[in-house]
Amino acid sequence: MDRSEARKKAEKLVGRMTVAEAASQLIFNAPAIERLGIPAYNWWNETLHGVARAGTATVFPQAIAMAATFDGDLVREEAEICATEGRAKYNAAKASGDCDIYKGLTFWSPNINIFRDPRWGRGHETLGEDPCLTSSLGVQFVKGLQGEGPVMKAAACAKHFAVHSGPEDLRHSFNAKATEKDMAETYLPAFKALVDAGVEAVMGAYNRTNGEPCCASDHLMRKKLRGEWGFEGHYVSDCWAVRDFHEHHKVTMRAEESAALALNAGCDLNCGCTYDFVIKAYEDGLVSEAVIRESAIRLFTTRYLLGIMGESEFDGIPVTEIESPEHLDVALRAAREACVLLKNDGILPLDPDALRTVAVIGPNADSRIALKGNYHGTSSRHVTVLQGIQEAMAGKARVLFSEGCDICKDRVENLARPNDRISEAVAMAKASDAVVLVVGLDETLEGEEGDEGNSYKSGDKGDLLLPECQRILIDSVLEVGRPTVIVLLAGSSVDLGSAAEKAGAVLLGWYPGAMGGKAIADILFGKVSPSGKLPVTFYHQSDLYLMPDFTDYSMKGRTYRYIGFRPLYPFGFGLTYSRTVLRSAGVTAVPGGLRVRVKAQNTGKMRTGDVIQVYAQNEGSPNAPANPRLVAFRRIELDAGESAELELDVSEESLLVVDGNGAQISEGKVVLYAGTSQPDGYSLELSGTEVIRMEVI
Questions:
Q1: Hey, what CATH topology would domain 333-525 get?
Q2: Which residues of the chain have pLDDT under 50?
Q3: 218 is a catalytic site residue
Q4: Catalytic one of 238, 442, 495, 680
Q5: Which phi-psi region, left, alpha or beta, contains residue 592 (left: φ > 0; alpha: ψ -120 to 50)?
Q6: CATH architecture of 580-695
Q7: What is the β-pairing status of strands 234-237 and 201-204?
């Protein structure tokens, strides 16, 4: 069924409703209309990295970790699995008459906000700091989730529109001020890309943008989204965001005015309760019957497209599809591809046959919470890092374990003195041939503002350091002097300080999902090579003083495109156990842009994945970002000694720059760089590889 046919059906059905009945369907927990045979439906569901908050599901690595794979095919495969498991859950719930929250087929994912500041707690829900990477992976997620058949398998939602990236504790009243240039160059491209790809829904943010609430913005919703971009799907408010109009933003005086303001702007669906006042607003003359019916039509168009107003080809998907062995294999592969090797002095991979005793130490070593990230499902089996190492070393060596410290408190046992597990950790380290120190954060320390659905300890980060108890543990263990690998489980930039210099290796595992411990063990012991790349810049703690204030939405001085200093680790960086070099690269003109042809070779001794990255710079352009920007990428897998030729297309639009009015213009001399990292000196120093410069004639 195409959209026009679905809309005709929706128009006919909504035409049979009273105004009150139509208004009742504009709230996320829409009631049944029995006289018309319309079942109740709850629109609120989540699948950020696996079907969330609805029981058992395949738990993939957190979104930021999926971004680190730079693997669009894998992201699409993940989303296809999410749709399959979502359908299985929906079918089972429907058979039982269960239409509760988290049981529907309208998923409020992906989060395509730009991770502009390392302090933002929700940054790990995103696909990173770069518009090109975010757009490309976001489009693949939408295509995988929605499918390409006559019936939409599940509905995706691009959120949070727009310019939302903290601070969390101000989001209900904050006005994000962004220039037309930053809007067009950074904050809006991913949303436009997903609209062009056919995303079914867009969610408005809590904040105001340039003075207008994002769920009632004439500029964003009317002019951009439905006007310039031609969006035809439905618009949903973030949860209780419309209530913020009168309670926090103070742009209205009462709930009826807030409901009318949002509805008149084109916000079709209210996650919250303010649309309970739509009929009162209608009676007061604040909103028309036509506006109410139009939003109801858009919503029922989506329901018809999903095939949930009758029968569909997906009705037979059984619960046995949930967390199937095949799905778990994909989650394991994703966790392997996501890990980023930040440092290696040669200690990795560890030789399991040469070790007699390994100490696994740290609060995240045996933590299930640190595997999950936020907005997660429930796995029937979690493999922690400790368990993964134990399985890998079974029958070969002894594995000792010490928690070492709490994730953030100064003691593990309440009645004990501070640092009560340090002596045990030191003793374990002394008794071992090598140490794997597993530290970091979890969803209780970085995430969304605390509410009924999120951890109350969560929110933005005050700094880029680990909690003091972990810093004490790391220093104490490193002083023992054993060969030590630090495994960092976190969703954003963390500065390990001198510990990174003292440790033999640093492996970033992110929040790697339920199979994360096995994936990390596979990398530590050389079963596979690490191959992830940073989708965000990692900063020194001191770099925060060089960056704009957290509440400043100017991009100047933010992300790899605009920073003017050497960061801790650059965007696009990640080591492998091998070495991929580009033997040649050339560029030719093709319809719609340029085509870059490269020949890559694995000159090392081990099979590895890697990411070919193409960056562009408009030399001499005053409007170009300060540093070269990503315009294309391709993930490859090469055996030792193997070569491959591949093509990467660069769109004509990505070679334009944005002027102060937000217009895309052709300016400067276009230069492309191809390699396995950014073309800056620091990236080349860290990676030990070179890039190839190509001038565009």
A1: Rossmann fold (3.40.50)
A2: none
A3: no
A4: 238
A5: left
A6: Sandwich (2.60)
A7: parallel
